[in-house]
Structures are given as C-alpha cells and as structure tokens.
Amino acid sequence: MTERAALETYSISLSVASGLEFVELAEMVTTTLARLAGFDEETAMWISMAVREAVINAIKHGNREDRQKRVEIQYAFNHDGLSIRVTDQGSGFDPSQVPNPLDPENLLKPTGRGIFYMKAFMDEVDIRSAPGEGTIVRLRKKRRPRSA
Amino acid sequence: MIRIKHRTIGDVHLLDMEGRLTIGEGTAPFREAIHRVIQLGGRRLVLNLAGVTHMDSSGIGELVSAYMTASHLGGCVKLLHVPPRIQEVLTVTKLATVFQTFDDEMTAVESFR
Prior knowledge:
Low-confidence stretches of chain A: none
Number of strands of chain B: 5
CATH superfamily of chain A: Histidine kinase-like ATPase, C-terminal domain
Number of helices of chain A: 4
Strand content of chain A: 25-35%
Order of helices and strands of chain B: EEHEHEHEH
Largest interface: A-B, 21 and 21 residues
Largest sheet of chain A: 5 strands, antiparallel
Distance between the termini of chain B: 33 Å
Oligomer: heterodimer
Low-confidence stretches of chain B: none
Largest sheet of chain B: 5 strands, mixed
Radius of gyration of chain B: 13 Å
Shape of chain B: globular
Number of helices of chain B: 4
CATH superfamily of chain B: STAS domain
Distance between the termini of chain A: 17 Å
Strand order of the largest sheet of chain B: 1-2-3-4-5
C-alpha cells in the first residue's frame, strides 16, 4: 500500500434485492475488498462468512425474502481495517432477546447461530434494531500489524 | 455447492462430502442425502468432511439436525477428517463437545461396534 493509499478511506456500496441468490455476490465482493484492505486469504474468508450471515439474516428474517425490499451493504476500509454495514428494510427485532446458542438448552437447536457466528469471527459487531424498524448490523475487522 | 458420495461398510453409512455446506445449494443436497440414508434404514452415519471448504450457520444447523435425527432413531452421526476451518467452527459453537470426530476411517467405522 502506498503512503497516500494508507491514509485514504475507501467506500463502496452494494444494494441487492432480497433474494438468497445474492448472498454469493455479497460474499465475493467482501472477499475481494478484504484482500484489497490487506487481509490475508484466511482472514478474508472469515470476514466474508460473517458478512454472509448478516446478509442472510437481512434477506430471510429482516426483509422476509420480499424482493421489493433492498439490502444495502456498505464497505469502508483503510489502513486500520474494514468496516461493513448491512441494512435491511424489515420490521426489526429486539437483539437482547436472541437466545445464546451456547446455552445447554440451545446447543442442539438447528437454528439461531447467525449472530454468534458474526461475533466469533469479527472484532466488533453492533446491531441496531427495534420492533417496527429496520435493522443495521455493523461489523468491523481490524488489521493486525505485521510481525517483524 | 456440495458433492456427496454415499457408500457403506457393513451397516455403517459413509458420506464423502466435497464443497461448501452453506445455505441453499449446500444444505439442501445434504438434507436430502441424510433423508435417503435414513429411509434406507441407516442409523450409523460417518460424515467425511475432508473436502468441505466452508460451513455457515445453516450448514452447522444441518449437521445438528442430522445428529438429532439419527439420535432419535437410536443411531449416531460421527465426523471424519474434519478440516481445521470446520474444526474451528465446531469449537466456537461448542459442537466439538457433541460430535465424535476421527482422523482414521476404520477407527470411525469400528467405533460403532
């Protein structure tokens, strides 16, 4: 990365209809941008998987696969890391009511791991949502300084 | 997309999986494969994950569903050749404490005896 590029913040937006066929597109874009932001291949893969979860939740649970509703994915990256914001136009939910999938009573449930998955592989996950409003998921991955 | 090959050793059903166990193109064929094995009377299942490159939360959910289906019928699902990426997913979700995993096929098959 040049000195000038290191100081700049790049912003890119993607807007997709609420169809699950667009999940792969979001994943590919995320992988490409994560690599551009300087992450290694493995970390870029985990970032992409976290973004997949946010986009799937936005399409399935937020917009309920209503193709008239959009999912906006906004990326910003600079030398420090990559931030992603996923916004849906759904009816919202109360994030505090999401069960912990690690609790013994939830461990063998087939669903409910999407948010946990994001938190496991990103440095920061912030979910703003309320019943009757859309949901905004903010994800951030910081770049680690290269070891000498 | 995922490719699944089914074979048997005695009464143990092995599914050799290759590709992505992710929502849609990955999870639907996997669910169908498990259903077919169960319909055939299979209760002892070994999932060979050597070729699985990605697994999202839906893929994890399908693994859990397969495990629960077999368990309810008195059987069991065990995992073989779990790649490091998938092992990481199983570890963070605590499912590594649920699934028995093996690095050797015959050991996995004989574990049902």
